[in-house]
Amino acid sequence: MRRLTLLLCLALPSIVLAQTPRVSTDQPVQMSVPAAAPADVESIDAIVDALYDVISGPPGQARDWARFRSLFVPTARVIPTGPRADGQFGLRLMTPNDYIATSGPLLLEKGFHERELARRVEQFGHIAQVFSTYEGRIEKDNHTLRGINSIQLMNDGKRWWIVSLMWEAESEKVKLPEQYLK
What percent of the chain has a predicted confidence (pLDDT) above 70? Predict the structure, then answer.
């Protein structure tokens, strides 16, 4: 029985992958994305820098949302996390378009600048995980916040793509560890 369980555990990922619909960046899935500037997607550093650049700007400055969309695979997720009104911790699953619809007007109205304080990159083959410590400033409110962006990336042999972007802001209960500030 132990051997059968072990074999199933080893085989299950292959079985699930074989039954999962394949998503390719070569063919449109549900929507297409604008063409990216080659310099924005040529490396992990370039795509992370482009992400920070495109969301930052003063009040009244329109963001280049086509550039923002061009960084993400068509089925990407943007996932803010944090405390909910009931005191529990939760997340919100959004698409890049959802993020634009909900945050875009606030970024335009209040102005927002986000800069990277530190970066940790883990890469294996065509995938990468980036922990990017950030400091953000809401200009009109003169409010500063810090946290970590967790960015999952994939290289299709031609360019880097953001597959998901999840973040958590620092709070009284959760402080940034020193290891993520270097």
Answer: 83
